[in-house]
Hints:
Layout (H helix, E strand, L loop, with lengths): L2 H17 L14 H10 L14 H22 L3 H7 L9 H16 L1 H11 L2 H13 L1 H6 L6 H20 L3 H15 L9 H12 L6 H18 L2 H4 L1 H4 L8 H7 L5 H20 L2 H18 L5 H6 L1 H13 L14 H19 L4 H27 L3 H12 L6 E3 L5 H4 L6 E3 L9 E7 L14 E8 L9 E7 L1
Helix pairs in contact: 1-5, 1-7, 2-3, 5-9, 6-7, 6-9, 6-20, 7-20, 9-10, 9-11, 10-12, 11-12, 17-20, 19-20
Amino acid sequence: MSKKNLLFYIILLGLVLRLAGITHGFPFILHPDEPTIVRSALGTRFYANPHHFDWPHLYVYVNYFMYMVFAKLRTIYIDFGALDFMKQWVPLLLDDSVVFYFLSRVLTAILGALSAIPVYLTGRKLLDNQAGIFAALAITILPFAVHHAHYALPDVPMVFLLAWGLYFTSRIVYDEDLKNYLLAGFFIGLSASTKYNGGLGCVSVALVHLVKYKNPLKKIHLLVLSGLACVVGFVVGTPYSILDFDTFSRTDGPAGAFWQFANVGSVGGVDYLKNLAHVLFSQLPENFGYTIFIIYALFVLYTALKLFKKRMVSSDVYLIIPMIVSIFMILYLARFKILRSQYFMITYPFVCVTFGIGLSSLINWMGKKRELLIQLFAIAVFVVPLVLAALDSLKFTQGDTRQLVYYWIQKNVPPGQPVFYRDSSFGPVAARISEPVHKGMGKVTGYHSGYMVVYDDGEFNLRELPTNVKPTLVLDIDNSFKLGPPLIVYKYTL
């Protein structure tokens, strides 16, 4: 199979994993952050300035233009008499309450799958085609990358743009053409304009320049111009960072970007070491599907041993640049007080390229005489994250527990019967329930009978209810192969 065909099938696999269950949760929007992108993009029709910088604005504007193109095409189809066809076959495209979320999710999924291209090109540029294929397959099947690509959020497009920045950075290794410096800086700037932490990719350009020229002042103008291109890329995507700098620079609330930088908090000393241990031995292995991170970690240790024994040749230094950047990013992010998995997505292109180089080097060392062993080893490395990613995608096709409770309430709760709930994540569902709905259990005694929706986290104790409340379990939905929390519904009488 040709390398182009193989890359095509890798991208196709990425699309299948990410588009499976892409309408999850509809008609509810159950992820609290998705409305930030969609509502801001829709609001751009009236005000080009979103007036908040919790996230930068590039992905907001990209979605706005996509929405406008879609709206015009939909109008054209309707004018040509396709309304009845759309009502029968694609009613979702006529439902403005969810269609824009659908479009943004699809775009995010596509960009996630296409991230394989720059990662492949980088691995090929630094080592060989085999390294590129391994790196591309790795970023395609990372379980958390697959999971997060199902939402209308900026992290996945940030990784896509950052991966292109890494590719043009890798080109600097063998070609000092100004174009590569400018494109590397520009794509990293666009990445930062999608989500701020994408700007950390600038470290890779500086490191390549330092390794290439030893003297950091030699041809420093190339590095300066790359930095300026990065600033241009950021401002192109988020122009109101300049035009509305007063809001951008606010530190007293979430509307300001500077507040966002401080809000994550930081830790030091023993707490930092605890964070780092959690990241290295639990969070990242799980997010990467275990085997990919193990190969990455072993290659890091092998490289450190070569450095210690002074067996590193000059040509090897360029191969480990993505590794050095990934280590820097992991060490930096581990100091955050809040360790959300999406924060570490900036490491994905660098870790996957490092993984691809490490696995390809290992297989080349094993030699052609052990072809069967090599094939079995490669299958073992990739099958674990692939299965984990596929199982996670399957969850998106099975519905959300909150969605299933809503359908049960619609079918089984008599008109006028109150519904009580405790967990705020049930709020979007509760807002659509036609019966009397109350958050909290404080008013259960105000009705002779009713229903209680409880998040089955082990914290709710029936003994907390007034003694005259007699609950009966009527529905128990676990979240095995489903999204959402495990939920229990009780019917009660006084």
